[in-house]
Automatic annotation (TrEMBL):
Family: Belongs to the ABC transporter superfamily. ABCA family.
CDD domains with a match to the protein in the record: ABC_subfamily_A
Domain ABC transporter as annotated: residue spans: 578-813
This protein's name: ABC transporter domain-containing protein
Amino acid sequence: MSIPMTEMSHLGGDHHGASSSPSSNNSGPISYAQTDQMVRDPNELDTKRNFGNQFNALFRKSSTYQWRQYKTNACQISMPLLLVSSSSIIIDQVAHKHFHSYLSFLDYFIVDNYIGDMQGTKIPAILNPNATMPSIYDTNSTIAGDCLKYLPSVYAKDLYYINELKSNTTNEIAKLIPSYVNSQQMVVPLIFSEYILGDFAQYCSDTPSFVYPMGIVEGPATYDEFKTQIFDKWKTQTVNGAYNFGTVDNNKLEVTLMYNRSISYGKDLGLFYTLVTRSYRLITGNNITQFIFDGVKDFPTKKTTIGFDLISLIGPTLYIFIFQLILPVVLRIILYEKENKLREIMKMMGLEMKTYWLVTYIFSYSIYLFAMLLVWLLGAIFRFRYFTMNSPLAIFFLIFLWGHLLVSFAFFASVFFTKTDTGTVVGYIWVFGTGILASNVINNILANTSTPASSIFVISLFPPFSLFRGLKILATSVTFGENGLKAADIVSSGMADVYGFFIIESIIFLILALYLEEVLPSDYGVKRHPLFFLKPSYWRGDKVVVAPIDLNPTMEGEPADVAEERRRVMETKELLALEVLDLNKVYPAQGGAKRKVAVKALALGVDQGICFGFLGPNGAGKSTTISCVSGLFPPTNGTAKVFGMDIRNDIDRIHMVMGVCPQDNVLWDDLTGEEHLLFYGRIKNMKGKQLSNAVYEGLKQVNLHEETGKRSVAYSGGMRRRLSVACSLMGNPKIVLLDEPSTGLDPASRKQLWDIINAYKRKCAMLLTTHAMEEADALCDRLGLFVGGQLKCIGSSSELKSRFGKGYKVMMTVEHGYETEAQKFLFQQIPQANLLNALAGTFNYEVPRNSVELSTLFSEFEQNKERLHITDWGISNSTLEEVFIKITMGRQNERGEYIMDDKPVDLSHITNA
Ligand SMILES: Nc1ncnc2c1ncn2[C@@H]1O[C@H](COP(=O)(O)OP(=O)(O)OP(=O)(O)O)[C@@H](O)[C@H]1O
């Protein structure tokens, strides 16, 4: 005979005798509950969170994590740098191409526009005589009035003409222009269009001023001489431009314009043009019938010098992208931990959220600051006036304060996203969208001096626009020959206002972010009442008062053992590791799914030092119960107490004595196993030798001690699972919740895991869910079987088997052709045997527990097996699996017994034979 040893081991009962039944009408602890350190009062537990330890734990973890992410971080940080560098190259190219090779194209464009502009100019009626000719500013003019002090002083006084006539006719025009413009009566109204003057026109538009036109003097006799002279003088830059007349007579005006780009940037080309054509008309009285405009010639200039800082001109547009580019990066940092439940698991393991936000803030800000300081450095290296001419103090405050607003705003925005990728993409759209909006719309609003202060105030409430305002002030200070913003001008320029907005908005967004995190419903976490801050108890730091839950003494339809468990929980005087008190969880209808009652009026107690197993089919509500107990979800009704501490108002303290291994492995891909354990150990106040020993032991127990350098992303599924279990056991928790801990483990690893759990369960209480019946058998002192969110039975494995199993199983294998004789023999020995199945000569029977005398059965089989050609036989106890199947698939009859509708094969003809 061969008796399957594993099954035979069940003979004579399980590892816990039925005598230890909780149903023995006592309300004390389960008799086999043992623990090395019995807790009698929750105050005996070390539930204090130490800010220093947790800060240290998180700071080290985040530093290591960010360091491991150096490639991603380098890419993200280099984006702003790339923008700065590439803009420098592009602008250099544009400057050289347009101002040197394609100069005339650009300048024709300017002239054309200018003419168009002039035609549309409305001359104010009060001006008399009407303006006939535009003027160039004489900034020294006292007549000009106050408005001119705002104008850039780039216009020098002298404009030359060269009398290098090709024709033999007298060059009347050449003579007349100087006398025309130099005559004192030629005080002309200032009527430049806004196109030409840009922002500066705003200053003078309300108070038309009169200025002297500049002087025009005769220059050297030939163009070549003139060129030489200009080239010699380019550094002093006193000459604005020159005319070189060709043929000039009553019908024809042939002229070449030359201008000094270093001074005038081409802005006054139109002016030069108009000056000569209108003078011609005024002096000759003729309309020009033939105008030969020979194009525009640039004055010789030093090769690399460009007259104005294009980068500063387009600065606000460019810099608004650069300054905001870290926003999606920060969003990614926050959302990664949110989406992957890492934030929740840290919380469940005891991390204080204040510490979490502080460290996340410091890291996000550091990444931003590092990137921006590099941008500043690069800007200085490329000699962008923006960075070299503006006061370093003004730039520093802009970078420093904007960083705070950016990070606070990212915190605020992160509240509205759950997926990392969605948040990051929206972040980039935000950066570019607001950048484009700012440079196209907000720019004009800010540039318009008639924009009321209230509008500017409203605009500034929007972070990207207040940034744009600051960037524009700095840009304006350097664009057209200004000397940059001085530290002394920070207040008068409006920069101080911008800083003020940054500071106030940072505080507002930070408070909003933290507030919304506390109250806004989300996938995980217990949320506060929206008006929680109005309660004085919140500010005093008092514990929230919650109504006590009185367990219903009876619940209709509850099986006897479950009702008994309810009574035990109500009456027990002992401090239980976990009391579940009429816990209900209803998931609201969402995304097409109906409202789901996942857990119904659950009442049970888990004693200290035992391992309690939740069994049940998929969707029975096991994980939901664990999630409620761990604080991942708030219960809809009812509550649970861990060592007497209520999950509704003491969850933070509970977390310090709790270890959680969720159903999915919640790990940081880029951290090693050792780093995970160090982190969780530090959170739970472990230090020094104690910590390093615990980490080593933890890794050794799960057989990961030789994988210390490997990051968890490179672990196999089983290794990740073992690491998750090791994390949950760090820091000597008093209660450990394990949601399907052995999923995906090979048999050897599973055995190892069982050894760990068996070793730990005397030190703490454990709650585990599993689908593996042998695991429940091997580990759990008590089991609860769930179906449809309700507890269907509760007890030790042996109790359940004896209550719901039919007794023993007998297996017999018979040689071909001798089956009938062998079966007859079996029914003679055990008349109540019930054939479950017969396959290829192997027969399985169910045998009622008291229907057989085991010793007689053994000797009868031994004596007859050869005669009956029985090659193998065995007897085993009912398995938990049968109990499981019976309860989950069977139905209850009127006496409350579980029966299976699928009847076994009817072989009564054999029995009767
Ligand atoms: N976040 C959720 N939102 C809505 N319904 C949910 C949510 N989580 C679980 N449920 C539903 O609640 C019920 C119980 O789910 P739960 O995950 O607790 O079952 P389980 O017993 O742990 O199952 P399994 O053994 O498959 O892990 C299921 O019907 C499930 O669809």
